[in-house]
Write a structure and sequence with these properties.
Blueprint (H helix, E strand, L loop, with lengths): L3 E5 L10 E5 L28 E9 L5 E9 L2 E8 L8 E4 L18 E4 L5 E6 L5 E6 L10 E2 L9 E8 L5 E7 L12 E8 L2 E6 L15 E4 L5 E9 L2 E8 L16 E2 L16 E3 L2 E6 L6 E6 L9 E2 L4 H4 L3 E2 L4 E2 L1 E2 L6 E4 L1 E2 L2 E6 L6 E8 L5 E5 L2 E8 L2 E8 L3
Parallel strand pairs: 2-6, 25-30
Antiparallel strand pairs: 1-2, 3-4, 4-5, 5-6, 7-8, 8-9, 9-10, 11-12, 12-13, 13-14, 15-16, 16-17, 17-18, 19-20, 20-21, 21-22, 23-27, 24-26, 26-28, 28-29, 30-31, 31-32
Length: 410
Amino acid sequence: MPRVLILAFVLLALLPACSFDRDEPAAASSTAQAIELGEPVELKMAWLEERQVHEPQFLLDHGGALLLAWREHSEAGSDLYMARRGEDGQFGTAIRVNDEPATVASYPHDEMRVALAAGPNGLIGVGWSDSRGQVRAAVSSDGAATFAPSVRLEQTDVAAYRGFPAIAFDASGVLHAVWIDSRYAEGMAEEPADLYYATIVDGVVTESNLTAEQEATVCGCCRTYIEVTEEGVTRALFRNGADGYRDIFTVSSPPAGGAGMEAGMSAPELIGQPLWKLNGCPMSGPIAVGDRVLWSDGSSGRKLLMVAPFGSEPASPLFSLSFSEEQQAGWMPRLSPRAVSTNQPGSPLLLLPGQASSRLVSAAAGGKEWRIEADDLPAWATSAFYENGSLLLIGSVNGEFQLAQRRVDL
């Protein structure tokens, strides 16, 4: 039997204590509230002394259970792990997601973090960039207790620069994925690149190029985004290069139940108007919150968070997720925004990783107005979970887990 390695940590003032067992690998303006921050949690895990832990993220499944995923790096390479929090508030055995050990890309950048998705009936999906130049995905049908062997998304043996996948389940359990692929570039150049799309049904991958008809290149180092709406519309977001600009575009399918995916995806459409003229990739991708798209922009000379509605005409005005001069002073976004996992209904929550500090903001109906809920969160925080007034923050610094808990009464 494999030797079980136990790692334990205590979250100060956090519901029940959280712990891990790990098996050895097998075959926008408002007034900030005054909120006390819990002491950072020091992790003492002997088995991690020779390993590097990166890009930890929370994921909430459809049954309300919290999952934690992360990448570990060693001299042999990188692996992905996931653990599930039980009803007792503790995380159980962490399992390795990638079936071939030490084959996960070790690119140390937030934009290349593992892609996570929760689906119906206990489905959990994980997508990642492979160290061999592949993009792979694995699916669990039992809530991340086990994972099926991973599948290769690109249906070609052409060696190329590729990565930055995003994944999402639809209501029937089909996994949808997009990623950036430069298989038509010379050598291993990052650009010109295309946005590729695939569906995974019972382990069978069907692939297509969503930008084959455009002359412009997809921005080669910005994270992609995909979701399937309640109406069955599959829509993806990515940063595109057109006429020297590097702006956000979307592609989408008709609603399910009509022509559905048989009609394919739309041609790439610009979100808002051309904004950022840049001869290079800013390494900052978009996300969606409801019917709003959010992303980082530097066209003004400093980083701003931009917001625009889905389906906007190219001439539609954009507006920035701005703060008062006092709130803005000395603060700017450090990484792209990300949604906060929560099992409580209400306004969407966003974590804004920033320089000097990170911020928690909530969206009003329609996502047009944003309210600061906390403006002095740890700068290392890159993923968050909110439950019953408690905000759990996680990140990593120099390959070590960082954890903190915050009281936030919304």
